[in-house]
Structures are given as structure tokens and as C-alpha cells.
Write a structure and sequence with these properties.
about 55% helix, about 0% strand
Length: about 120
Amino acid sequence: MAATSAVSPLAATVPVQAVLFDIDGTLCDSDPLHHVAFQEMLLAIGYNNGVPIDDEFFIKNIAGRSDVEAAQNLFPDCPLEKGLKFLEDKDTKYRRLGEASEQFLGKKLPRLESREVAEEKWRRH
């Protein structure tokens, strides 16, 4: 009996050249900057009666969550699109904080593509 080679549908569609798993803290610990960005953005809209979110809230409701899950956790009574727009604005704030941190530290931090650039590259495949 001849051996057959099974190719997964994903591998046939998008050939894998490399795989990189970046668990936060491996290349760069970005959670503190995300936390600050969320704190500032949420305070600006009067979230939690103007009380800044603490580490426990951030870890329980935001850290490691998908955008959809984080939006639903933060704004359970609002349309999902509104929550996702907030998260998009938070990402912009996060990138600005990262740029300011680079200036403060005097060194470049790992640069991630914007969500739009990454999605466009994915669509082209």
C-alpha cells in the first residue's frame, strides 16, 4: 500500500513560512501600556463613575480577551459596534503611548502593524 501525504486545507490555501507565538511579555510586555490607555479612555467617558479601573478589573475583563469579548464586558448594554469603535480608538491611544514611551526610554520598541494593515495583508492571501 502506497503512503499518501495529507495536506490540510489551510496549508494548501496559505503556505506557512514561519510561525511566531508572542505571549505578552516574551518580546515586549505591552499590558501596562494597554492598561493605561484603557484607564485614560474610560475616565474620559466617565466610566465607573470616574474611578480608574484597577489591575484586577483589567485582568478580569480586558487582558487577553478578543475585542468582541472586551467590548461586551465593558459595555454590555451598548451596541457591539459602539464598543468596538471604542476599542479602535483605544488602540490609537495605545500606539501614541508607545511612541511617547520610546522617546522616554530612548530606544525603539517592537512595532506592530495597525489592524487595518494586517487585515489588508490577510485579505490579499
